[in-house]
Amino acid sequence: MxxxxxxxxxxxxxxxxxxxxxxxxAMKTLPVVRRLWKKLWQYEVERQDVVVFIGGGSMLDVGGxxxxxxxxxxxFVYVPTTLIAQVxxxxxxxxxxxxxAGKNLIGTFAEPVAIWAYRGFLETLPAREVRSxxxxxxxxxxxxxxxxxxxxxxxxxxxVPSLAILEQAAAVKWEIVAQDPTEKDRRRVLNLGHxxxxxxxxxxxxxxxxFTHGEAVAVGLVxxxxxxxxxGYLAPAHLDQLxxxxxxxxxxxxxxxxxxxxxxxxxxxxxxxxxxxLYVPIWAxxxxxxxxxxxxxxxxxxxxxxxxxxx
Amino acid sequence: MxxxxxxxxxxxxxxxxxxxxxxxxAMKTLPVVRRLWKKLWQYEVERQDVVVFIGGGSMLDVGGxxxxxxxxxxxFVYVPTTLIAQVxxxxxxxxxxxxxAGKNLIGTFAEPVAIWAYRGFLETLPAREVRSxxxxxxxxxxxxxxxxxxxxxxxxxxxVPSLAILEQAAAVKWEIVAQDPTEKDRRRVLNLGHxxxxxxxxxxxxxxxxFTHGEAVAVGLVxxxxxxxxxGYLAPAHLDQLxxxxxxxxxxxxxxxxxxxxxxxxxxxxxxxxxxxLYVPIWAxxxxxxxxxxxxxxxxxxxxxxxxxxx
Lengths: 311, 311
Known about the structure:
2 copies of one chain form a homodimer. Chain A is mostly helical. Chain A folds into 2 domains: about 120 residues, Rossmann fold; about 180 residues, Up-down Bundle (Dehydroquinate synthase-like, alpha domain). In chain A, the strands form 3 sheets. Chain A has a 3-stranded parallel β-sheet. In chain A, helix 9 crosses helix 12. Chain A is globular. Chain A starts with 5 loop residues before the first helix and ends with a helix. Chains A and B meet through helix 2, helix 3 and strand 4 of A and helix 2, helix 3 and strand 4 of B.
C-alpha cells in the first residue's frame, strides 16, 4: 500500500508523526502490538489525540486493538484501503490479533470515531484482491436481498465496485452491527459462509498458494447454500443462481487436500460453537438468513456434494 | 494471600482449573498478561465461561485486562482480598498494566459481572496494608462527607473497618463511577490527593522502603488540602481535622529525597493533565470536591508548607 501511494503518505508525514508497518494476516501478533504501543508511548499519545490507521483489514484489526487499549482507549480513525476492509473489516468495532494459531483470540470491541473509505485506493489493488473482496459484497447482498442482490449478480468481479455498491454493501454490515454491537445474536448472520469458509482458509495454509479470505468464503457460501437447500429452506433456483455466479467469477475453487479428522478438528476450533452444538447462519432466500443448529454430518455431506460439483 | 488461605484455595482447586500468580505492582507486566492469556487458551475459555480473580488490586487490574481482551471479552468476577481493593481497586471497571515505567498505560474499561468482598480476608493483612487501605476509605469519606466522614475520623486505622464502613466506602466509589464510567468528568473527583500522591509514590521507589499507595495518597491529601485552604476554599478547621487525623495515624510521613527538576518531570508525566494545564480535584469541605486549574507553583508551595509542618 505504502509503495503504491508513497507520495500521498509522505505528504501526511510532513504534518504528523507517521509509521509504516508491513501488512497482512502475519502482522496480527503480540510483538507488532508491542511495537505500536511503544510508538504511542514515544509520541506521548493522550486521550485527546487521535490515531489514524491506513491499510487493509489486518492493519485495522491490530491498530484498533492497540488504540483501544492505550490509556484505556484513545480515539482512532480507520482508512481502509482494500475492498474487503471498506465493506467489511473496518465496520463493526471488532479488533483483534492472533494468538497460538487461533484467529482473533485477543481483541476488544471498539469503534473508530470515523471511517474514511476512498474508492481510489481500490484501483491499485491486485485483481485477486478485488475478486476476493467482492465475495463479502456478495455475502452482504445475499443477506439483504432486493436491489443489491440483483446489482451484484450483474456485476463483473474483476472490476472495482461502483461507489453506490460500496455504500450499500457497507450499509448492510453497519445496520446489522448497530443492532448487536457485541455479537450476542443478530450479528451472527454476518458469519454466512464463514463456518466452512474458515475451515478451508485454515486448511489451505499448507498449500503453495493459500486461499484468500474471500476465496475461502466463496466456497463456504456455496457449500452452506446447498445445506440450506437440503434442509428445505433454499429454493433450487436460488442455489443455482449462486453456484453459477461463483463459477462464472472463477471462484468455484478446488478444495485443499485434507483428512476428515483434520477437517473436524479445524471446524470445532471455531469459537462460534455454543455448548458443543454448531449454530450456522443459513441462507433461506435473498434477504433471509436464519441461525440453525446443524450436525457435523450435514456439513460433511455439503462438502461431498461440492467435490462432485467440481468434477 | 495463597499462603494464608491455602486450605480455602485448594478447596476451589478441586472443582475448577486454578492458577496462582505472585501478586504486587511488579506483576502488572505484558509477560504476565501473556502467561494468563496462554492459560485461558489451554483451558479453552469461551464467552459463556466465567473467570474469577482472587487477590489484591494488582491481580484484579491484570486479570480484568486479560479477561476483557480474551475473545473480545469473557465475563469475570473479582474477589478483592485487600482493604484497598475492596473499597477502591475492584470498583470502577478500570483494568491495566504498566508499560515502559508508565502506570496503567495499557488497559481497558471493563466491568466484572460481580464483585465478592469478604471482610474475613482483611483479618490476615499486615498492619501497614490495613492502614494504607484506610487512606482510600478516608478519601471517600472526604468526598461524600456526612456520617461517613464522622465515622472514619473516630476510627482507629490499625483495626479492620466494620462491614458498615466497608459498604459505605465502596458505595461512594460505586455511585461516582456509575455517573461516569469512562472517566470523562465527574469521576475525576476520585483523584483527590492523587495528583501529588502519585508523585510521591513514584519518587519513593528509590527509597529502601517505598511508600505504599495509601501512604503516598495520605501525603497528597494533606498537601492538596492546604492548597485548597490557600485558595480560599477549605475552612481552617477542616484542614486541621484532616492533618490531625493523618498525624495521629502516623501517616504524616517524611518525603522522599528529590530535586524540584525530577519532581516536576514526575508530576507532568501524570496522564491526567489536559492540554498542558493541571486540573486538580480540590477538597472544599467534607462532601464537596471541585475540579480546579492549578499552577505548578501552587503545588510547590503546598510541598514547602508540608516540609515545614514536619519540622
